[in-house]
Amino acid sequence: MKKDISWDKIKPETKTIWAGESESFPYNTTQPSTVNSVAFNYNSIDEWMDVAKGRKEGHIYGRNTNPTVEILEKKIAVLEGAESATAFSSGMAAISNTLFANLKPGDRVIVGKDTYGGTSKIFMEYLPKFNIETVFCDTTNIKIFQKEIEKKCNLLYLETPTNPTLKLQDIQKLSKLAKISKSLVVVDNTLATPINQNPLKLGADVVLHSATKFLCGHSDALGGVACGDSQIIDKIFHFREINGACLDPNPAYMILRGMKTLALRMKRHNENALELASWLSKHKNIANVFYPGLSSHKGYSVAKSQMSGFGGVLSFSIKDESMIEDFISNLRFAHAAAHLGSLDTIVGPPKTTSHVENTSEERSKLGIPENLIRCSVGIEHIDDIKNDFDKALSGL
């Protein structure tokens, strides 16, 4: 294929297959290879130096760059409409490196209180040690965000939909407010995926993914990625290469392979999650259902405006909180695990999944109810999913 492809008018289904793979591979293979070499040889010091200084394409050392990882970075960058991307050993590595690469003592971060548990730990426990202030706002209250941004804001951190409460934040409106203060806008797009939402087009500066989740889709590889303007990503990359949180080529290959079916999988995830959420909302043993695709959801209008699909994750609460363990145990076609974004359905309460790192007091402060169950809806047949949930609920 020709390397000078213009991706603007190419559909996501085609991007997941071809993006990052427009150049010929060694031995003319049709698929990328896993390049496990830590070091790369050069016949002359001059050529070696040109690569080291970025004057010529190539690789020097595995902690810095790798051919397999580079293909993954290019593919995700195209899907998000970004100039550049850099990959990490995990989603949390992508988040923490992005924050520490762009913050300094005395800075102020504005964030919604419903962020993922690991992320909230950085804001609550680690940034204060470096004299970086974090202000938690009511996640969906734009007026409170505006008030805090106007005081001082160096970085605005958004997560939408949130994990696990599925709250929505208006990326475009909040980004406009942040730009007035010249704040960096970072968005965790893990739950939506680039198939359903593209934050850069809505005004964000950096988009983050836990590639372990939907991008990989098969629960067998850890990874993370940051996408955005090349100047910002270069800054994050240089922090990462010194910090050492690089992505190994083997999981990079597995994530690449998983991404080939991302568009197909997300179509089924979206459909199944919407139908299950609708069905659960009418069940006698269910108190509340949280899914942005439901018209009853408080963020439904925001979801309609910035998402093309509502994702594969929902959460709900059982009327009798004491029955949570029995319900999960009664399911036959669902894993009880601390994970999401896989082919198979996965369930669990936040205290053992998204917010296991937090105390019950911290979860309460962050607005995470103890009676909540997060459900990552798989691509099984929806009739079997509903029948399984119905039997589990009826047995309580």
What are the main properties of this structure?
396 residues, alpha/beta, Aspartate Aminotransferase, domain 2, Aspartate Aminotransferase, domain 1, 2 domains, seven-stranded mixed β-sheet, five-stranded mixed β-sheet
Please, could you describe this protein's structure?
The structure is a single chain. With about 400 residues, the chain is of the alpha/beta class. It folds into two domains: about 10-260, Aspartate Aminotransferase, domain 2; about 260-395, Aspartate Aminotransferase, domain 1 (Alpha-Beta Complex), CATH 3.90.1150.10. Helix content is about 40%, strand content about 15%. It has 15 helices and twelve strands. Helix 6 packs parallel to helix 7. The longest helix has 19 residues, at about 260-280. It is globular. The model has no long low-confidence stretch (mean pLDDT about 95).
